Amino acid sequence: MSGRVIYAVKEPEAPGGGVRVIARHVELLLEAGIDAAMWCRTPGYRIPWFANELPMLSGDQLELSAEDLLVVSELYLLPGVDPAPGARKVIFNQNHFLTFWSWRDTEGYPAWDPAPHVWAVSRESMDVLARVHPELPLSHIPNPVDGDLFQPGVRDVRRIAWMPRRRPLEATILERILRNDKRTKDVELLPLSGLSEEQVADALGRTSVFIALGISEGFGLPVAEALSAGCLVVGYPAGGGVELFEAPGAWATPDARPHLLADRALALTDVPGDDPLRLAAREWVAARYNADITRAAVVAAVSAARAQPGRAATATHPVVWPDDPHGPAAERGHPWAAAAQTNR
After folding, report:
1. Residues 294-306 pLDDT 10s
2. Whole-prediction pTM
3. Range of the domain at 216
């Protein structure tokens, strides 16, 4: 079957893994000979924090053919709103904790015509979503990690790094604990914030220990990227990231225990940069989260979704509704917080 695979995306104000994963899907589908694109609202918009020349569609509405497949993130759904009635659709659920972000109850989810397929990015999400809506077809598409970008660099100093975005208050406490500890006298402490993908990769490649501060994660891509870059990792599995802490070189810590994170991270800073454990962690990630695995999974998921009935339709970009003061979001009083939107 011919036709396009179109991913509706928000125009994010800050870097986020969700949009990056969508971009990788589009790249991999194009490599497999499947017409794919991202759909934003603003003509000429380009995602600013990683280089790409991917096909971009624009506008508040888009005409879909009977062969097209529309992919919508779980965060963009509203009760009573079908973004493209009659067209084939997929909910790309990158975080099962956000499934009902805009819903006051869980009845009738999502009440689309036809019923959508659901794609998930982790084993944990698969287990949860299979029980949340067992009536919807579910596919597992593992996230890919770019091992050429996220690779070990020169570790000429002992460095501990973390991303404060998901837990800013706890990150501040963690940083103060670390700075007050005498063991950090010769350790560089590096919060990673507001950086491009290339800058993050470079920093991780020269980092001794990465502290994972995820919360309510669908997967936890920074953990996989840090392991690929040769970091040792301590932190919170945070739900969907539990599979990543099966890797050599990764240590799970009980949730919300920043002093335990600090102690474990400081104990690991003396592990040499060329220790075999770092290479073992990188190889573990490469064997499970690579482009070939993701390409095969997303191509199979697209094929399964296209097998459902569908017809031509006019699609309305899902982020139009929250901006409409007279639209469904306003009428139902549902929250649509800017902080949550930046996750995608």
Report:
1. 999 999 999 999 9
2. 0.92
3. 158-288
